[in-house]
Amino acid sequence: MEIKYTNEESVKIESRLFEKQFDMTFLEIHDFYEVYYLLSGERKYFIEDTIYKIEAGDVVFVPPNVLHRSLTDGEGRYSRIHIAIPSCAFEKEMLSEFESAFNGYILKIPSKRKKFFEQILEKMEYEYNKNDSYSEYLINNAVNELLVFLLRVNKGMEFQPSEIESDRIISQAAYFIRMNHCFPITLEEVASEVGMSRTYFSKLFKRKTGFGFSDYLAGVRITEAAQLLTETDMDITSVATRCGYSDSSYFAAVFKKIKGVTPVKYRKSSRT
């Protein structure tokens, strides 16, 4: 079988949907690091002398100078992101640590981490397509963020985002809460929405906002309730239901705790 040698001097990213399976007709070897992330479907990957079965959520990490090719697995469609990363894009110490810690070629991304991992890839792809004077710097930053992510997954560690990324995550969570506060949303649901574990998200949310999740959610709900009490003639039970409380007595107790008065007294005082 033909062997093709390729090289890259800068990061290359390709995202693609394939309508049907196919086998690569040649073995590939290259001087860069390859990250192959399967978004959907199933594939097989031949690496050196072993065939690996991969499915959606799996990452194939191929170092330089390793023979490999992707193979058919079934007949269905599949989609993937392929990234070619020259060694110069990595922080050397971090890459060395990863190579010493990672003994295989396949990493399975935990379901609760997939969304976060895919956001890193989306950020890389966005900058790659934008291709302005800042893009190379931002892509290299994302490459090392990706490497840290994979290193922590490999070690079974909790992924800890940067401060900038943390701010984005909390903004996303706060928006989700505001848009869904009328429903019985939970801490677990919001943590899943931003791709984090319940425990770590709870700590991060408290550190960034100064409020625990329950207190923050109650604040959002009671703020809307106060507005409804002031601007509409909805009865108390309807206001409670509209703001996510199925029990009007509990709603009244939470309202008084936050506003210092009952909903009835608040409405009267706001209209005098």
The percentage helix is 40-55%
Q: Note the gap between the termini.
A: 87 Å
Q: Identify the CATH class of the largest domain.
A: Mainly Beta
What oligomeric assembly is this protein in?
single chain
Tell me the domain tally: 3
Per CATH, which architecture of the largest domain? Sandwich
Average pLDDT, all residues: 87
Radius of gyration: 25 Å
List low-confidence stretches: none
CATH topology of the largest domain: Jelly Rolls
What's the β-strand tally? 10
Give the CATH H-level superfamily of the largest domain.
Regulatory protein AraC
For the sheet with most strands, the description reads: 5 strands, antiparallel
Strands of the largest sheet, in order across it? 2-9-4-7-10
Strand/helix succession: EEEEEEEEEHEHHHHHHHHH
Please report the number of helical segments: 10
Strand content: 15-25%
Q: Specify the overall morphology.
A: elongated
Secondary-structure-derived class:
alpha+beta
